[in-house]
Every structure is written in C-alpha cells, then in structure tokens.
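G., the chain you wanted modeled:
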Amino acid sequence: PTESGFTTDVLALYDWAKARSGNSSIIFWGHSLGTGIATNAARKLQEERGVQVDAIVLESSYTSIREAAAHVPISKIYWQFPGFEYLILDSMALGNMFFRNDENVKVLSCPLLILHAEDDAVLPPQLGRKLFETARSAYKDKSKVKFITFPEKLGLGHDYISSNPELPALVK
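Predicted structure as tokens:
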C-alpha cells in the first residue's frame, strides 16, 4: 500500500458512489491513518477536478504521519536509541508516506469536523487540536471548521468515538 494508491482507491470509490447516489451528500470520513487519506482525496478532487466533497469528518486525526509516528506510545521507547529518526521517521518519507493533513486542510473549503477523545492513547488530542487550529486559520469561512472532543470519562480512546450514541446528532 502507498499513500498515492490509497488516495486513488478513495477517488475510485467516490466516483462509484457519486454515480449511484443521485443528489445525496457524500462525506469523507477518516479514522486515524485514514484521516490522511480522506484529506488527500478531498484535496485532489478540489485541485484536479474542481469538485468539492460535501464534508469531511476526521476521527482521531494528526497533522502529518511523521508527527503521528513520533507520538505513538511504542515509538517513545525507541526515541532513546540512535538512528530512530532516520530508521523510522525518515523511512516513511523515503517511501513517499507523508499524509500531510496539515497541508491539505490549508487548501480545503468544504465543511470539516475533527473528532478526538481526550483519552486517546495512540494519537494525543493535541494533534487533533493542532490540526483544527491550522484549518481554522486557513479557512475563509471559519464556521465550516469544528472540533469536538470527548471527555476521558466516556472511555472512547482511539477506537470508539463511533460508538458514542450522540455522534449522529453531532455530525448533523
């Protein structure tokens, strides 16, 4: 799998869904790594086709895959070893794996909702907040960018925001 391949796959799926959806809205919803794929595809649609996706929801997001990898709990063990940055973080760049949510949101203009749980132990909420701040500063219409956090007491962590019964109402 490659970043480019993932993006191409999502665009093919978008075309398929759009051809069959009539006037229904199509929303890109990415979770974790998928947030980078969602913003890549939305940006490509906008820049190369002049088409804007109806909305994007980013769940447990990050700014870039490099910054995300640096915050993944298991990586903290290896930070102390010489060469970690080169072997792990730089190797992703050498494989053209960037997933630059922070750069993508700067050029998007569709509604953007960022969701993050305060108890996310994989990607800390400050990465989602940082992405929100980047998007909010870039968007002309600030009302199109929203950030919702879920309190730690809900126990949603990295993977369970979608199980929150209030989520459908929040997305609407």
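The radius of gyration is 16 Å.

Shout if anything looks off.
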